[in-house]
Design brief:
- This protein is an alpha+beta fold and about 575 residues long.
- It is about 50% helix and about 20% strand.
- The strands form 3 sheets. Strands 12, 13, 14, 15, 16, 17 and 18 form a 7-stranded mixed beta sheet that branches. Strands 1, 2, 3, 4, 5 and 6 form a 6-stranded antiparallel beta sheet that branches. A 5-stranded antiparallel beta sheet has the order 8-7-11-10-9.
- Helix 7 (about 330-390) packs antiparallel against helix 8 and helix 10 (about 475-490) packs antiparallel against helix 12.
- The protein starts with a helix and ends in a 6-residue tail after the last strand.
- The relative contact order is 0.07.
Length: about 575
């Protein structure tokens, strides 16, 4: 059984803890999702800003190339003049602001429609070849894939279609060191890098470790989650080295549809979120513990009066009517405590009154029993004393008077002895007793009284073998005689009283049976108590003393009775064998 104090404390604690626990879980999840979204948004903003710088870089390169083309299309320019214009654009990109990343043209060359170099900023054979020219139909501006030159530096070729009839294409050999430096300088936290890819997923610039080698080999992103063409802008994946990575892509960089991807290991990217989540969980845990402690303390404080009342009720149930409860709280529990104390006071008064009444009733029963048991012998003695004064000279009467006095005083003495034996243990001696012989002796002695009452006293089933029990011969005889006498008093003339003996290996039951009036069920349980009798008069000590003697000898006495059919008293004793005899 779970005490109500624990249930109440559990209820209070649950009422306080569950909402806080739900709040903690929801808050932790919300904070995690919000922080994740903020981290992805920050990476996206970084990627967008860096992509804008790259777009400006590309736009500046195209702008310079278009400016060179515009200068070349002047009227009446000689080849030397065109060569000087191209050299000036290679050496001095003065048209750009000073804080902008400046493209670096290594060489500018003009090709005619047949693919033959017409003029170049480089003296001698120009570096770009016919292979740099786009195949028709081709857009006005094309950029070839990034290459790594002999110095392990990135480069690409940019081709612009001209309108002049003699010079069809302007081809620029463009260095990309600044672009690589721009991508390599992009850092997210302490471990994040960036990479630049074209529309096919080919690496253009890679700020990761050994990124230049991958660009030189012309590697593509392959299984990268942002290279599948689905348009996803953020993803988490596990790299080949087993590290989980957060990747965020920018929008396509015009006009070449390049994309900038920012990557950072997920543990580093979400470290702040995890720290915040841990702090929140720690706070919620501490709050839960505090609520539990407060709930338990409040529950105990609230229910302590119930425990005090329960203790008081148990004490009252155990008979300690002096128990009181002291509740200092000024609420309904205090009223309950006062009501309990008032009830305990009333019970104490009722108990004292009941004790007084029971004492008076017991004394009344004792007095009535003594009057009944002693009045007859005393009256006989009194009457015969009066007669002896008149017949004192008759020897026969004096002898009869002496016998009467001895008999009546014996009756009085037995009554007093019963009272004394009830108040203190009866001294008994233990010797082996033959139960069969004892029964036959009692039957023989009680047959005279039975004949006077018109009731047959007989020995029933008595085994021929010796059934020995340990006991006091005189005390056991007295118990049997008392049971037979009670049976005679309860049996009408013409009835029968008999004694049976059963015997087995371990016990010897002795049954005193009669065909008398029987004992009602509502009184059969109390007949062995002191001063309880089914007869109209008497002290009611016979069966009480009989049970006391039997129990002192280690036996047990029971009764079975049917009203109108008779009763059966059974004395059960342990059987003595030769090995157990003293």
């Amino acid at each position: 059984m779970i005490p109500i104090t624990r249930r109440m404390a559990l209820l209070v604690t649950t009422a306080a803890v569950v909402p806080l626990l739900v709040f903690g879980l929801v808050a932790a999840r919300t904070v995690t999702n919000s922080t994740r979204e903020s981290v992805i948004a920050a990476h996206a903003a970084l990627a967008a800003g860096s992509a804008e710088s790259i777009a400006l870089y590309l736009e500046s390169s195209v702008r310079l190339l278009r400016a060179a083309a515009a200068d070349l299309q002047g009227i009446g320019l000689t080849r030397d003049q065109q060569q000087r214009i191209l050299s000036n654009h290679v050496q001095l990109p003065f048209a750009l602001p000073a804080d902008m990343v400046m493209p670096e043209f290594r060489e500018l060359t003009v090709f005619d429609a047949a693919g033959t170099p017409v003029v170049s900023s480089q003296l001698g054979t120009p570096t770009p070849r016919r292979s740099a020219l786009p195949m028709p139909p081709a857009p006005a501006l094309t950029i070839l894939p990034v290459e790594v030159d002999a110095d392990s530096l990135p480069r690409t070729t940019m081709t612009l279609r001209l309108q002049e009839e003699r010079a069809t294409f302007l081809v620029a050999d463009l260095r990309l060191e600044s672009l690589w430096q721009l991508v390599g300088n992009i850092r997210v936290g302490g471990t994040g890098q960036a990479l630049l890819v074209d529309e096919t997923g080919r690496l253009i610039a890679d700020g990761r470790e050994r990124g230049g080698t991958r660009v030189a080999r012309g590697e593509r992103l392959g299984a990268h989650p942002l290279a599948d063409g689905t348009g996803a802008t953020a993803a988490q994946y596990v790299r080949a080295d087993g590290v989980e990575v957060l990747a965020v892509s920018s929008a396509p960089i015009r006009p070449l549809q390049w994309r900038l991807i920012v990557e950072q290991p997920a543990p580093d990217a979400f470290a702040a979120a995890r720290r915040l989540e841990i702090q929140l969980l720690v706070f919620v845990s501490l709050a839960l513990l505090a609520n539990i402690a407060i709930g338990v303390a409040a529950g105990r404080s609230l229910l302590r009066p119930i425990s005090d009342l329960l203790t008081g009720i148990r004490a009252i149930g155990e008979g300690r009517l002096d128990q009181r409860v002291h509740i200092t709280r000024d609420d309904e529990f205090k009223l309950l405590g006062e009501a309990f104390n008032a009830t305990a006071d009333k019970l104490g008064e009722l108990q004292q009154a009941a004790i007084r009444q029971e004492r008076q009733a017991m004394f009344g029963r004792i007095a009535a029993g003594l009057v009944h048991d002693l009045s007859h012998p005393i009256q006989n003695i009194n009457n015969n004393c009066k007669l002896v004064l008149q017949m004192h000279d008759d020897p026969e009467y004096r002898a009869s008077f002496a016998r009467l006095v001895r008999r009546e005083f014996g009756t009085i003495q037995r009554t007093f002895e019963d009272l004394r034996n009830l108040a203190r243990p009866i001294p008994l001696e233990r010797f082996p007793v033959d139960a069969g012989k004892l029964v036959l002796d009692v039957v023989e002695r009680m047959q005279v009284q039975g004949s006077v009452a018109g009731v047959a006293v007989q020995a029933g089933t008595v085994p021929g073998e010796t059934l020995s029990i340990e006991g006091d011969l005189f005390a056991l005889g007295r118990v049997l005689r008392n049971l037979v006498l009670n049976a005679l008093q309860a049996t009408a003339p013409g009835g029968r009283v008999w004694i049976d003996i059963d015997g087995d290996i371990s016990t010897v039951p002795v049954h005193v049976c009669d065909t008398g009036c029987g004992i009602p069920d509502d009184r059969i349980q109390a007949i062995f108590e002191d001063f309880v009798t089914t007869k109209r008069r008497g002290l009611g000590l016979g069966l009480a003393i009989s049970r006391k003697i039997v129990e002192q000898l280690g036996g047990a006495i029971t009764v079975a009775s049917q009203v109108g059919e008779g009763s059966r008293f059974t004395l059960a004793f342990a059987r003595l064998t030769r090995a157990t005899r003293p």
